[in-house]
Amino acid sequence: MKRQGIINSSIAKVLVDLGHTDYIVVGDAGLPVPPGVIKIDLALTPGTPSFQAVVGAVYDDMVIEKVIAATEVKEKNPDQHQYMDQQFGEAIEYVSHEDFKKLTAKAKAIIRTGETTPYSNCILQSGVFF
Question: Chain centroid to CA 107: how far?
Fold first, then answer.
């Protein structure tokens, strides 16, 4: 048994298997999952678990080098934008939502939350643990 950190076995396995610059995605309930990408579905009801709760748990258990988010989050979802800015600061790179969805095809996994607010998605790029 793990003593701390993420206890969801699917997420824990993905995190342990990540290499430098690999992607995982934390997405809202509506983010499409490209063929061939593992979907870890945590959604229970609308809003549960929240995007912020899942991002926070993964953040505590993962070395994150860079974060990619859709530019649209700045205007369309200022609460999520503020959260990501506080959590990741200058590590965030913004791309169009269309480009964001294309990048998800390179992810090792997409973690689906119950979040229903628009553009509540981010790509977490793994760093190195040294």
Answer: 10
CA 14/CA 4 separation, integer angstroms: 16
- HEC string of 85-100 equals HHHHHHHEEEECHHHH
Over residues 22-49, the pLDDT tens digits come to: 999 999 999 999 999 999 999 999 999 9
What's the count of helices (H) and strands (E) in the chain, helices before strands? 5, 6
pLDDT tens for 50-79 read 999 999 999 999 999 999 999 999 999 999
Question: What local confidence, expressed as pLDDT, does residue 110 receive?
Answer: 98
- pTM > 0.90: yes or no: yes
> Please, is 51 exposed, middle or buried when counting C-beta atoms within 10 Å of its C-beta (0-12, 13-18, 19+)?
buried
Active site residue 97: no
Beta bridge partners of 53: none
Instruction: Find the catalytic residue in 9, 17, 20, 96.
Output: 20
Cα-Cα end-to-end distance for the chain: 25
